[in-house]
Amino acid sequence: MMFNFFAKRSDHPLADSKELKRILAELHVDRPAKAVDEVSGWFDSLQHSESFRVDQYFDVLRQLDEAAQRHLLAVARDYLLSERLTKREEERLWTRSHGYWSQVATLYTDCIERAQRDPKSKAGDAFKAFLPLALVRAQAARRNQLKWLAFRYGSGAEDLWQALGTTYLVAETTTNAQKPLQLYPARQGLSTVAEQYLHAIVFFASSMDSLMPVQIELADRLIAHCLPYFVLLPDCRPDSVYWVDAEAGAPPLRLARHPGVSRRGLRFFSPGTALAALEGLLHRVEHGEIPSDINLGGEYAPRALLPVLRHLRLYWGKCPPQRRHTRHAVKTRMLVLYGFDDSYSLFSGAVPRPENEVAMDSWVVENVSLGGFRAQIDHSATERINIGALLCVQPEGGDNWMLGVARRFTRQGPDDAYLGVQVLSRQALSIELRPRRSGFSAAVAIPGIWLQDGRETGILRIVLPLAGFNVRETLEFSHQGQRRTLIPMELEEVGSEFEIACFREQSAT
């Protein structure tokens, strides 16, 4: 099929069908990262070649892109799941994948624009059959760029939203926006340009800056699974939550007020019945079942999936979470220690050990609210902080340590990073808990940090080490000479190295 229609012989090696077949066959099968680099190198050569007709150019691009897909999946798995990656290796994997999607999106867009400039030419006419696939792949590539930016909590997606909007409108103008196509030969199901645009909007609305990278990947796949339930329309509905102007190329905005007069690129987004579908899925996972029809890209335990489902449930409602407390601009410093062990030690009344004082960070806090603060952090801190990390923080000049958790991470350029921290408690106390099953004195102690503020009477919130909570196990501890008994209620949150559990205190008899 490929090169029988060449008008003149190109001197590019990919113009020879046998050579192209050989190149594709000899990609590094056992070295996915190297294979992606090779394809990217061929993309570079295509971008600077003027010897291809647009239809020929697209067909070569299509085959290279298809050959790279399984290698890209392997690179993504390494980036998300490998536990022994150095920061340099992680950076290389990220740069390779993000760069690939940026490059291939540009090339598909080049094909579309070249054909638009000369639609009545022989090459432009031949390309018409390829246009729907070029559009949907360009849109999917831009959406993947958004995801890889989210993995690094990066900003600078404005150009992506401009490209997503432009491609969506071109597809509408050419009646291709709703045309279902198989995105890649090995991928199940069909997709459209409009669905890819909607997927990007849902992704944006789902607040990925408060999830860890592997959770972002799971959320992205859950969005794909639930995508048919969302709605994107030119008219505002009572349940519309966001609006987007595809022509202006801006990211979606919360529908605090109507954007005004109707215009060509204006679209309104609503969750439709997605929340009900997600609730049903959450119920099944809470009972230990992961439906087989969901493509998660791998095998995950319900414990890994539940926090993502609960996060999406918050943001897919008709009234997504909004900031509850007013922020106040400040410029102050905050001392910071990391992790459960040092937090437990501090709230036991211990003075920070000398080795911890060396490792203690000092952050510049930019704004504060009743719920937490936003701080500028340096490069060394970004290497040891994950979303969900437990933090001990103390305002400069103060004598009270607070317990917090890293919630939102944002990069603004290569050197500037900002972390949003939620304060869990301004009055915490370390305690030793013991299971009641075999007698108070005989049981092995479980360390816990009691969050003493902000909870209703008779309900205790306690931070435990991972796997410290057992819904079937009653716990006891001593406080001010009294023995207190705790009945487990629910696991409120699972962080990177801790759990927050709720207990009901049993009345003394």
Brief overview:
With 509 residues, the protein is α+β, with helices and mostly antiparallel strands. 39% of the residues lie in helices and 23% in strands. Helix 2 (32-47) runs parallel beside helix 4 (87-117).
Please explain how this structure is put together.
The protein has a 6-stranded antiparallel beta barrel. The chain has a 6-stranded antiparallel β-barrel with strand order 11-12-13-16-15-14. Strands 1-4-2-3 form a 4-stranded antiparallel sheet, with helices on one face. It is an alpha+beta fold and 509 residues long. The protein contains 14 helices and 16 strands. The radius of gyration is 27 Å and the shape is elongated. Strand 2 and strand 3 form a beta hairpin. Among the domains are: 98 residues, Beta Barrel (Thrombin, subunit H); 79 residues, Thrombin, subunit H (Beta Barrel). This is PilZ domain-containing protein. It comes from Candidatus Accumulibacter phosphatis.
Tell me how many strands there are. Answer: 16
**Helix proportion:** 25-40%
CATH topology of the domain at 328-425: Thrombin, subunit H
Low-confidence stretches: 1-7
Mean pLDDT over the residues: 87
Query: Beta-strand percentage?
Result: 15-25%
- Biggest sheet: strands, sense, closure? 6 strands, antiparallel, barrel
Name of the top-level CATH class of the domain at 328-425:
Mainly Beta
Organism: Candidatus Accumulibacter phosphatis
Protein name: PilZ domain-containing protein
